[in-house]
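Listing 4. Sequential folding, example run.
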Amino acid sequence: MAVEPWAHSPSTKLGPAGPITSQPVAATSSDYVAYGRPYGQTEPDGPPPSGPGAPAEAPGVNGPNWRRELATERAYITAMITAVITDYMDQLGITQAELGQRMGLSASRISQILSGNENLTLRSLATVAAALRARFDINLGPRDG
């Protein structure tokens, strides 16, 4: 019985591009290996693997739920950032008017920014942090569920 190219053993981990063996892979500059496959090698011909141990379909821009996941993630990030800013302002006893003064903006503009309906840029977040004499602590990790 021939072993399918995508078959894996318990000593193999599944990576974004398929199986990754736990043994070191010898590679030269002309034979670079990424994700357990020689550089440039694509998925094996034939049907995709299925059943227990088969790699999960990777999410991405081509996934069926991409737009919904993106909208959800944007809303989550915006809500978290605005909540962190608002909570920190409360801890310091700083009003929207005072933050606006520090940033050279009106209190109503600060209210718009903290409403969660604004597209906050990294530049605007850096300006908020500087005005609050603070620094954002950013972590990226897997989602729950």
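-- end of first protein; second protein begins --
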Amino acid sequence: MRDRDPAAPPVSRRVLIADDNVDFAMSLEAILTSVGHDVRVTHDGRSAVDVAASFAPELAFVDIGLPGRNGYDVARCLRQMPETATCALIAVTGWGQDEDRRRSQEAGFGIHLVKPVDPQQVIDIVHAGTTARDRLKRPPVSAGIRLASR
């Protein structure tokens, strides 16, 4: 198998964004669709699980503090469903303490981003298309920079 040409355009990915901050979610959607990705957005935990079941995202950016079903529960659910068992899960939250990172890893998240997030970092994560299994071999990444959040 040959390595992908770094000059080639990135592969289009199926991405789920679950965040109750509508402005943040829509900004992230606009950024990712502008670079060619297929994106679905939800604003609560229950609909995140429902959409994921039919959409089968390759990556999911999930807020921990979602209404209806929190992000930890969403991650556990996605890990159990055949359609999303290998989906790369990225926690996107305002909670950045060591205990928060530990809990996100235990729930199945491979990456822990702290709001506000850097849009380029989000693009890089999606373009890398890293599988959940690969990400879970390492401790979660923590970052905190620039995309507006409330």
